[in-house]
């Protein structure tokens, strides 16, 4: 996932494929939520041990 700004404006790519800004933002948010869920699960496991 990458977002680049050049003279023509913003360019959003996912795995080398150019996508719309909306698609990029939806997938970026989904990836962040997945990371947050994984971190939450790890923290829950740590608190269960305590």
In which range does the helix fraction lie? Answer: 55-70%
Along the chain, the helix and strand elements come as: EEEH
What global shape is seen?
A: rod-shaped
What would you call the quaternary organization? Answer: single chain
> Strand percentage, roughly?
25-35%
How many separate domains make up the residues?
1
Main sheet summary: 3 strands, antiparallel
Global Rg: 16 Å
Largest beta sheet: what is the strand line-up? 1-2-3
Could you please describe the fold and organization of this structure?
This protein has one domain (2-49). The protein contains one helix and three strands. The protein has one helix at 21-49; strands at 2-6, 9-14, 17-19. The chain has a three-stranded antiparallel beta sheet. The longest helix is centred in the last third of the chain and has 29 residues, at 21-49. The chain is rod-shaped, with a radius of gyration of 16 Å. The protein starts with a strand and ends with a helix. The mean pLDDT is 93.
């Amino acid at each position: 996932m990458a977002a680049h700004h050049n003279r023509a404006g913003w360019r959003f790519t996912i795995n080398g494929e150019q996508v719309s800004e909306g698609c990029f933002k939806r997938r970026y948010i989904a990836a962040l939520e997945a990371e947050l869920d994984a971190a939450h699960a790890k923290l829950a496991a740590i608190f269960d041990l305590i």
